[in-house]
Amino acid sequence: MSHTDTTALDGRYATVERVAELRSADFAQLADRSALVVGCGALGAAVASHLVRGGVGTVRVIDRDIVEVRNLSHQILYTEQDAAARRFKAEAAAAHLLGVNADCRVEGVVADFTPGNALRLASGTDVLVDGADNFETKLLLNDVAVATGTPLVYGGCAGTEGSVLAVVPGVTHCLRCLWPTPSESASRMTCETRGVLPSTVATVAGLQATEALKLLLGLDATEVSGLVRIDVWHAVLRRVPLPAFGTGPQACPTCGDRDFGYLRGEYRTMTRQLCGDDTVLLYAPAAAPDLDRLRQRHGANPSLRSWPECVRVDIDGCRIVAFASGRTLIHGAGGVNRAKALYTRYVTG
């Protein structure tokens, strides 16, 4: 896509380009920019929609999960038809986004974002967008950002509150400057434990998309807003005062000491009940599923679907999705114990 075709595109983006803060920017350069959105749930879906509608040339969305009916209240890209078909979010999102702007290149990648594939999946992108539902993945994104010098836009929300931070490596604070050792309470602050208002998602995603736009347009780092906290119930938005970058009492383990423990895979979760409807994640670092074996073993099952990075099969009233990364999602098991039994029976057994 090229924004040099002014006859075709002037009308499409004219309303955005008239914004005073953008008049000095070369809006046409967005056609040559790319964004990686990791996690295409509530925040990721909304931010991806903003970027595609705004004319970003390439948007790559990564997600490992399927669309569920319970997602439809706060995840704007999906439909009842997607939920009924149990479509992968990455595939459904890509299809819907292309329907919004066919001139944008949208890549829907069904994959688990892990230390083993993070650098490859992030390669060639101009900005990283955090749509993850867990702190482990957010901090992995932070490691990738600092290690590669790629800007990151963090976002998180639960209940009526949220926060946004644009990370410009070497210029602004990264996530571990602020949270060197994330607390257990922080990791439990999710939509599963506190719920989330759709308006909370919309507000946080809007701010994330705005920060991403600034970065993609190459605006000065002083234009990014720092750490912003939002409370939509009380209509409060505030910028949190932070010390000057690099002046804290201790060096940041990531951008100070260059310690990329999350990227090295030192903080991987073995078993976790996910923020979703009866979904369990299992991870065996020393014994990743043999996808070719699974394809052969379940080849007679008509529900079997296969991609280079994963295999999906419906069995025993559950849906099993095994990834080459070593992670497996089991939907509908009714709890961790049965999920482990199904994993042993149908994935590793």
List the helices and strands and how they pair.
Elements: H1 6-17, E1 34-38, H2 42-53, E2 58-63, H3 80-84, H4 89-100, E3 105-110, H5 118-122, E4 127-130, H6 135-148, E5 152-158, E6 161-167, H7 175-178, H8 184-187, H9 191-194, H10 198-216, E7 228-231, E8 236-239, E9 271-273, E10 279-283, H11 291-297, E11 305-307, E12 310-315, E13 318-323, E14 327-331, H12 336-348
Parallel strand pairs: 1-2, 1-4, 2-3, 4-5
Antiparallel strand pairs: 5-6, 6-7, 7-8, 9-10, 10-14, 11-12, 12-13, 13-14
Helix pairs in contact: 2-4, 2-10
The residue ranges in which pLDDT falls below 50 over 5 or more consecutive positions are 1-9
**Strand tally, please?**
14
The largest sheet, given as strand count, sense and whether it forms a barrel, is: 8 strands, mixed
CATH superfamily of the largest domain: NAD(P)-binding Rossmann-like Domain
- Coarse morphology: globular
Radius of gyration: 20 Å
The helix-and-strand class reads alpha/beta
Which percent range describes the beta-strand content? 15-25%
The strands making up the biggest β-sheet line up spatially as 3-2-1-4-5-6-7-8
Q: What's the multimeric state?
A: single chain
Q: Helical region count?
A: 12
Secondary structure: helix percent: 25-40%
Q: How many structural domains are formed by the residues? A: 2
Mean pLDDT: 89
Q: End-to-end distance, in Å?
A: 48 Å
